[in-house]
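Problem 12. The chain below contains 124 residues. Write out its predicted structure in token notation.
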Amino acid sequence: VQLQASGGGLVQAGGSLRLSCLASGFSWDTYAIGWFRQAPGNKRTYVSYIDSSTSRTYYEDSVKGRFTISSDKVKNVVYLQMDSLKPEDTANYYCVASWMVGVNEWPPRRYDYWGQGTQVTVSS
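Solution.
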């Protein structure tokens, strides 16, 4: 499984960005795809997850109502639409794939594959 994140950049507070995670070598029926973020000096934290086989999604509380995760199974891409961005959203954003066969917890706590990060910077 390979994951390639893109779409980061510099945006003013209140603006929008759309991140993309291009996935290859996996099946939508067996993996969920998620986004994490990590700001300098902070630990990596959940942002959002999607299990396209069940249509389940997850959002961390601080991004609910502002971020939307979606998937395009034809293009093998997971998008993270980020609206109403705040300076505290500034971080390196990573996409991750989690094996879901036989896994009941949601969001998953096992992360099998990581992509490289894409930097998001929100200016005040």
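Discussion. The CA atoms of residues 58 and 107 lie 6 Å apart. Students who got a different answer should revisit the alignment rule from Section 12.3.
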